Amino acid sequence: QPSPPPQTPPPPPLLPPIPLLPPPPSPPLSPPSRPPCPPAPAQPPPSPPRSPFTISVARDQFPSEVSWTLTCIDGTQASGGAPHTVIVVTTVGTHCTLFLHDSFGDGWKGARWRGFGQDFTMRGGYVDAKSFT
């Protein structure tokens, strides 16, 4: 009798199919980013200190002939005759120009302009200019 055919082992049991997982959700879209803010503008340098200065002009033999005008680069202005006293507030160390006037043209006869640590008179002529800091 012939021998029974060799038996083949039974196939291994089939594993159930692995379910495919859905892909993970995409991260939420963020709103569009704003461009960076420009840097804050540079602060202006602090203003130089201001201080009051007394200007005094002494009497002249002919006070009606005397006048003067002061102009400083910080915008300070003052003017007057003789005798005259005024307080001006200006930037410390500012550059100023002073014009001395004598309407008769013979200079100031005793009048003196004093202020900002300066002391001026006008020896002769109609106009004289002085500059100082």
Structure keywords:
mainly beta, four-stranded antiparallel β-sheet, 8 strands, rod-shaped
What does this molecule look like?
It is a single chain. With 133 residues, the protein is an all-beta fold. It has a domain at 50-132. Helix content is 0%, strand content 35%. The protein has a 4-stranded antiparallel sheet with strand order 4-1-6-7, with no helix packed on it. The termini are far apart. 14% of the residues are buried.
Query: What percent of residues are in strands?
Result: 25-35%
Mean pLDDT level = 89
Query: End-to-end distance, in Å?
Result: 138 Å
Shape: rod-shaped
Largest sheet: 4 strands, antiparallel
Structural class by sheet pairing and helices: mainly beta
Order of helices and strands: EEEEEEEE
Overall radius of gyration = 48 Å
Number of helices: 0
Strand order of the largest sheet: 4-1-6-7
Pick out the low-confidence regions.
none
- Number of distinct beta strands: 8
Helix content: under 10%
Topology (SSEs and partners):
Elements: E1 50-57, E2 66-72, E3 77-80, E4 84-91, E5 96-102, E6 113-115, E7 118-120, E8 127-132
Antiparallel strand pairs: 1-4, 1-6, 2-3, 2-5, 5-8, 6-7
Biased composition (Pro residues): 1-51
Region (Disordered): 1-55
Quick overview:
The chain has strands at about 50-55, 65-70, 75-80, 85-90, 95-100, 115, 120, 125-130. With about 130 residues, the chain is mainly beta.
